[in-house]
Amino acid sequence: MSDTQKSREERIAELRQQWLSYAGAAFDLMFHPEHQPDLTSFDQRETRACESVDDLKAWLLQQHLNADTAAAACPPPEQPPVNCPHCGKPAKRIELPDKPLFQRSLISLAGEVTLKRAKWRCATCRVAFFPSGPQTPTRR
Predict the structure, then answer these.
(1) Is residue 134 part of a domain?
(2) 43 and 79 fall within a common domain
(3) Which of the residues 3, 8, 39, 68 has the least number of beta carbons within 10 Å of its own beta carbon?
(4) CA 66 → CA 12, 70, 85, 118, distances in Å?
(5) CB 62 within 8 A of CB 114
(6) pLDDT tens digits for range 62-116
(7) Helix (H, G, I), strand (E, B) or coil at 129
(8) Residue 99 domain-assigned (yes or no)
């Protein structure tokens, strides 16, 4: 087993433990005796359950985004240019040497998450965008 594979497996095992702990906390909010006075009506119970599930969904999605490889979040400089999603022409990566990746907050079906990606700009359309990994050429 390679060091990279072992490291990935260790990270996944660590995330699994964090997930179980996080899910356990959600369970305790619903069933722990101290919280029962707050959950007497159906509406209170439903609201608590839905909030817990939404929180778990957002956590799981954020962890998966954080686990993206460096190549997916920030392709190497020798990668061919990414095509603009609007006009299909090659775009230019906005370089920030020795700086962290650009962060973008997204409101997803799971809730708000933060996406960290290289930022690209199309000179033709004058738009900036954040591709989610290696792109295949677009035909236009």
Answers:
(1) no
(2) no
(3) 3
(4) 12, 10, 24, 14
(5) yes
(6) 998 888 766 667 777 777 788 999 999 999 888 776 778 888 898 988 889 998 8
(7) strand
(8) yes
- The pTM (predicted TM-score) of the whole model is 0.68
- Report the first-to-last Cα separation within the chain, whole angstroms: 44
Phi-psi region of 98 (alpha: psi -120 to 50; beta: other; left: phi over 0): left
- Angular region, 116: left φ>0, alpha ψ -120 to 50, beta rest: beta
Is 7 in the same domain as 62? yes
- Do 123 and 89 fall into the same domain? yes
Alpha-carbon distance of 110 to 53, in angstroms, equals 9
Judge whether 119 lies within some domain: yes
3-state SS class at 106: strand
The residue count for the chain: 140
For residue 40, the enclosing domain spans: 3-66
C-alpha–C-alpha distance, residues 59 and 62, integer Å: 5
